[in-house]
Amino acid sequence: xxxxxxxxxxxxxxxxxxxxxxxxxxxxxxxxxxxxxxxxxxxxxxxxxxxxxxxxxxxxxxxxxxxxxxxxxxxxxxxxxxx
Length: 83
What we know:
Elements lengths: L1 E4 L12 E8 L2 E8 L10 E7 L5 E6 L12 E6 L2
């Protein structure tokens, strides 16, 4: 499972965001990894929207507050290959 945590504070910034991969064995869910944006900044809100590819090999993660050049809060989508 892929879960977004768009309000996560990474390092010393606020609302940078992250996403988490969980696996289930029976009724027990275990966190496997945390995903963050390599270029994350304050108020990016990475993880506000998340999706897994059909084969579970890629994560698509939205960051609606991401600044692109001079475009403030333009937003981005990240495709992250999973191991």
